[in-house]
Records
---
Amino acid sequence: MGAPHERSDAARNRERLLSAARDLVAEFGAEALTMDALACKAHVGKGTVFRRFGSRAGLMMTLLSDSESEFQQGFMFGPPPLGPGAAAKERLIAFGEGRIYFVLENGELLKAAGAATRNRFDVPATKLSHRHMEILLREAGIADPWVMAMSLTYALDPERIVDDVRVRGISPTRLTDSWRELITRLLPAA
Amino acid sequence: MGAPHERSDAARNRERLLSAARDLVAEFGAEALTMDALACKAHVGKGTVFRRFGSRAGLMMTLLSDSESEFQQGFMFGPPPLGPGAAAKERLIAFGEGRIYFVLENGELLKAAGAATRNRFDVPATKLSHRHMEILLREAGIADPWVMAMSLTYALDPERIVDDVRVRGISPTRLTDSWRELITRLLPAA
DNA sequence: ATACTAAACGGACTATGGTCCGCTTTCTAT
DNA sequence: ATAGAAAGCGGACCATAGTCCGTTTAGTAT
């Protein structure tokens, strides 16, 4: 990405690693991916894996980045009600619904990305989500949008959503309905 | 606690372990406590530590149980507005405030207890909090109290509260104010 | 083509939570 | 007091994330 050329061996190894990681996730799931197995499958030393991605969480974030930036495009530049053009309340409702389905599709990766991080707020996508909600909440007249956005961020925590649906048997619809009720009550009627 | 006598050696070791654990937490903090160090300090085998507490999370929960049950007493049997006697809205506000201060006092232990568990909802105290809020939300006419209580549970996540205050520099007052705003808007005016 | 340098490499090593299982101790029934 | 059974014990062992550092290699300047 930066100016200084990436060495050819580095580029080759990155491709190998990414490809091997995708294979392993596809076959055994993100939970089961170990850094040793990845290094081995990619025919690369363990040190190389960690230099490239920093940590297991970093690897998961890299793996996520495609679908993630697609979702981000949606709420930042896409059509209303998710994108700009609708009222803050409608956008927040759409955002939460979108996020819930996004998490249910990429749940394993997201959980794995958040788990290894000291505070899960370090996940860049989470920061961006928070900022987005903060702006909408400010627009809607919430007194302390930053803190309120944090409450909502945790309410949409990947672990929470995935476990509600997969462990505790709550249907996605119940989650989105409840989110709608939460936002509807939270924000003053239009 | 059940009928069958606890063997005297088991009882002795439990005391040793608890005492050693409290010492270690007091001196180095809960984060820094390792199971090996605990076993060593208590002059006990590592297997004994795990048989007694099951896991690191289990140990932390045991360490918490005193202050925890005190807080639980407060919201279940204590005086209003925290305890029974006040309106659901007031009780929820008081509950959140109490929980925030409780977490700030026992944050390390709580984080450690939640971290090692598969889903942090496994922490018994968390389950109880959830149930308490569920009941109050039902009383206040929320459509899906179980799910809404889960959203609020995550909004009060120990990791969130501790990191907001200690890492992101948010004052406890801002947290409680925002919680009050959240509940006030969420629940219909009395 | 050669020599040089900075980047990249790899895998042994560490830290730590958790498991396993053969040995020891306590309790109880006789 | 003795023997047998059940509970408890301990520490070697395993899995896995992450670090360290001596060695190799790709690019570059001459």
---
Amino acid sequence: MAVTIRDIAERTGKSITTVSRALAGYDDVAPETKVLVRQVAVELGYEPNLLAQRLQKQRTDTIGLILPTFGPRFSDPFFSEFLAGVGNRAARSGFDLLVSTQPPGEEEINAYRHKVQGRQVDGFIVVRTRRQDARIDYLRRAGVPFAVFGRADGTLDFPFVDEDGVLGMRLMADHLARLGYRRVACIAPPAELMFAQLRLQGLREGLAEHGVLLEESQIRVSDLTQRGGYAAAQSLLAEARIPDAIAACNDLMALGAMSAAQSRGLVVGQDVAITGFDDIPMAEHSHPPLTTLHQPIYEIAATLTEMLLAIIAGKTPEQSQVILKPHLVIRRSCGSAAQPAQP
Amino acid sequence: MAVTIRDIAERTGKSITTVSRALAGYDDVAPETKVLVRQVAVELGYEPNLLAQRLQKQRTDTIGLILPTFGPRFSDPFFSEFLAGVGNRAARSGFDLLVSTQPPGEEEINAYRHKVQGRQVDGFIVVRTRRQDARIDYLRRAGVPFAVFGRADGTLDFPFVDEDGVLGMRLMADHLARLGYRRVACIAPPAELMFAQLRLQGLREGLAEHGVLLEESQIRVSDLTQRGGYAAAQSLLAEARIPDAIAACNDLMALGAMSAAQSRGLVVGQDVAITGFDDIPMAEHSHPPLTTLHQPIYEIAATLTEMLLAIIAGKTPEQSQVILKPHLVIRRSCGSAAQPAQP
DNA sequence: TTGAAAGCGCTAACAA
DNA sequence: TTGTTAGCGCTTTCAA
């Protein structure tokens, strides 16, 4: 069976305490003992039983990430990159990453509770915030360390990283308006998502500065997927007067919208401009390439993890409330780079 | 602090043994005791300490998934869907999912070793097999339960699910050849990946049946990303005589290849056919939509997890070596649905 | 039907 | 510098 500290103790003729301390690197152990113990440990192929270690230390060295998924299946390039960012940063500090998926709702909070009370994690990374976010309320109340990607309504007394969605969409609106687009539509995420709120506001304000009104009738709510973006765009394009630009609130929906426009025989970037938000790898390789706002997902994930790790360690994170400025990536789907603007 | 079994014992006046058994549902506990204990447990908000439970039971109720990533960052829709499949199926049986990312190599096996010896997981799901797969060798030798997505060279004495890559690419080759394509190129994954081998073989054989030779000079090896597919296609299309069809071995590379063709002013499906493999959601919404081979990733992941769970439980899985037949999804990138074939 | 006691593998006060 | 001892929170013989 597995090698334990006790085996090393027997083999070296020392006590398990001494072995434990030698392995942990305490300096109240004779150097030669330390060497001996370590050598035997290697010989025997010893690996500490983390379960036992954690039970004793009352820490789990694990961080939790519960992905809010709408359907049972999901395929979001955003999350895979985010995951890598969290996982790699965590691993660098010897932390494990416990991942699960759970649709928003009652069960979701139970999943958090369960992991907290079952002492499976030391803290959480929370993603895709809702305006009223029960996860944040719960974690705050329970005193569990956590760091959040996104903000929420109410008091911002928790550590977070967020992109400046208002600014981002203002930049986009400005760009679109300068190109001459006047009849602008929007494919927005469900209103309960915090970033829906912010991005929509940014778009509205940005257009307003150019005297352009974002009409309510030109807003379609969709579920962040290509399929959803496709349906939303179809609905927009089935109207008598179609928009001359569609600003989608994420890339996946924008890509779906492009597909819808093309299925109707429209040339994207010429008959209709379409823009996204996120700059996923696909944005660069779509046809035409997608004008969008870049977010450094991997870095955001790593930063959040670093914050969380600091909090778990009882330290104050160097930075605990970060708002990043997304930058505009102009490609061809808005018609600017290749063709002259549509008046 | 956290509520323990001891608190319940004190509150009910019973011993911790009795409480433990009442909670576990043993039937050598008086019904009224059972009721009382459970009621108090709920009142106090008791949740078992999984660490303690697991240490005692010598099981972790956790399965491990180490994603082989090439760069530090990765964004693969394939993995996010796979992850959801594993996570959901695992959760349904009360299992946790421990995820990490690790580029193939020395460190990778250490990561496996570490999790096994540290008793962090009861078994692994292994993805994206290599022809000589050190992970499989290790797990087999160590006697750790595991289930694999993909096959490997050598003895297939382990449980796996795989798609029939040979058949898949034969179908594709057949389709392409029937459409009249004769100068077919291929964007292949690194040769050490098992599926590269199989898919390439399928393409070669399928074309051969129509008397078409897949020339070595028409094969480009790439890294499974859009960017890689883009570069590979650029190289293919920079030749004096360009291929009339490019079969990429996955969708991401196919999408990158489409982008490359389009950047050179070629019309995909007309000037050049491009096909993929996987049928990721994006395949349906690209422009033109991508002809590809469908794989039910989510179901594969769930099936694999089920197998693994059975093995961990000491049972024999109902099915332990599954080879699925991918089916051809004909869209427009090969020029068949919309335009007449190119002679 | 219940409880005392041992122990899962480890750490850490405390004493020697 | 080392060892004894007492847990971390739980399950499970074994005896009552």
